[in-house]
Write a structure and sequence with these properties.
The protein is α+β, with helices and mostly antiparallel strands. The chain folds into 2 domains: 62 residues; 50 residues. It has 2 helices and 2 strands, in the order H-E-E-H. A two-stranded antiparallel ribbon has the order 1-2. The longest helix is centred in the first third of the chain and has 58 residues.
Length: 115
């Protein structure tokens, strides 16, 4: 075999390896997208189940229901609630929101540090 034939074989082998590595990356990205969609769908369904439970509790308890929550749109938190114990529900929601935001930003910082 001549030198150019060996170079062509080596180039083909490298191209084949690169293609196989790209396929593996594409498969892992596809699985990640599927997981993200499933988590989004789960959260969406969980939200509607929660709304249904609040409505059901209101109907079963003759209309006296305590509820509260926090919605964060960008940097602006929207806090709402009604009922005798709404302040407690809002306090728990605020603590959980802060914990989730701290975890989100700490994991994000770690991921950015790995890149």
């Amino acid at each position: 075999m001549t030198g150019t034939t060996m170079n062509r074989i080596q180039v083909r082998q490298k191209l084949i390896l690169n293609c196989e590595m790209k396929k593996e990356t594409d498969v892992s990205e596809n699985k990640l997208m599927q997981l993200a969609f499933k988590l989004f769908l789960f959260g969406f369904i969980l939200t509607f189940v929660g709304i249904f439970l609040v409505l059901l509790a209101g109907m079963l308890s003759n209309g006296s229901v305590d509820f509260g929550g926090i919605i964060i749109i960008g940097p602006i938190p929207i806090i709402f609630g009604a009922g005798e114990h709404a302040w407690l529900i809002i306090l728990v929601a605020a603590v959980l929101t802060i914990v989730c935001l701290v975890l989100f930003f700490s994991v994000r910082r770690q991921k950015l540090g790995e890149l």
